[in-house]
Amino acid sequence: MRILFAADEHPYSLTAMPQVERLGENTWADITILGVEKKSAIDTTLKAYHNSFMDHFDPEALPYSPGRNNKNLQGGIRKQIKTRVRRGDPAKEILEEARQMGSDLIVMGCSEKKCDWQGAGDIPLKVARNADCSVLIIKAEKKIRRVLCCLDHTNITQASLEMINQMVTLFHSGLEIVVLTDGRKMDKKLGAKLSALLKYYVARNIYPSIETVKLSSLERFVSQQARWGLMALWMGKKSIFESVFPSSKVSRLLKVNNSSVLLLR
Q: What sign does the CA torsion over 237, 239, 241, 243 have?
């Protein structure tokens, strides 16, 4: 797994950093900490994030190389933690870095009220709308007690299931799965998929609740639920959520609600 943490020097990025550390601890992913320099230097901030990440681990069980050129073979495992600085338009540079490194997940913090970056505008919104990989936007430093997961049951992928598993484990939270219906009685095919989904999570000691929601009522349901914890939406190219939540509605969802949001792709 490859995680890109895109950060600036403001408190919302500092708030997101512990979640990146815990993701690294849970997944042993390769981590890149990226700063985009437009006007001011960011090297000192990135160094502080790098040191914070390394200090999170027990040195005796550290899977990451202490520096860029020092390879750690502890337990036969070699993982990368590196910092990068790019110059230019922040959103474009973050997306390009994610593309070049083959990122599986971009993690960003943002201001709570506008979901923006101070002095740089709606960078998190642009990244969330245009990334090819999953994006986790962390809005506030608060206890995430529930992950609300809206999965398109016609396009459930193994990667999306594993990502939700990581989020529930990361936040020690409950899981609620929303299943879309067209108002008709659930057929056997859908029932079989839900049964397999439950078995997947129960095998990992996760016991989700499942709620059915009509497609026509989804936007209203989401707006009512989005003030709690973390909301995950499957936004792959073939997902039905692409029609329910086009770019403008995704931006509004991120702006007006207090919850963190995970866009799965």
A: positive
CATH topology identical between 2-138 and 146-264: yes
8-state DSSP, 64: B
Strand partners, 79: 64
Q: In the chain, helix, strand, coil percent, each to 5? A: 45, 25, 35
Distances (CA, A) of 72 to 46, 56, 101: 21, 16, 21
3-state secondary structure of 65: coil
90 exposure class (CB count in 10 Å sphere: 0-12, 13-18, 19+): buried
The correct answer on CATH 3.40.50.620 for the domain covering 146-264 is: yes
The CATH H-level (homologous superfamily) assignment of domain 2-138 is HUPs (3.40.50.620)
Residue (of 69, 65, 70) closest to 80 by Cα position = 65
Residue spans of the domains in the chain: they are 2-138, 146-264
28: Cβ–Cβ under 8 A, 6 or more apart, which residues? 1, 63, 77, 79
159-212 tens-digit pLDDT: 788 888 888 988 888 998 887 776 656 667 777 878 888 888 999 899 998 887
Pick the closest to residue 170 from 195, 211, 136 (CA basis). 136
pLDDT at 63 over 90: no
Pairing state between β 105-109 and 209-214: unpaired
pTM of the model: 0.84
Assigned token pair, 73? 């073979």
Of residues 102, 24, 103, the one with CA closest to residue 64: 24
* pLDDT tens digits, one per residue of 78-100: 688 889 999 889 999 999 999 99
pLDDT band at 152 (very low <50, low <70, confident <90, very high): low
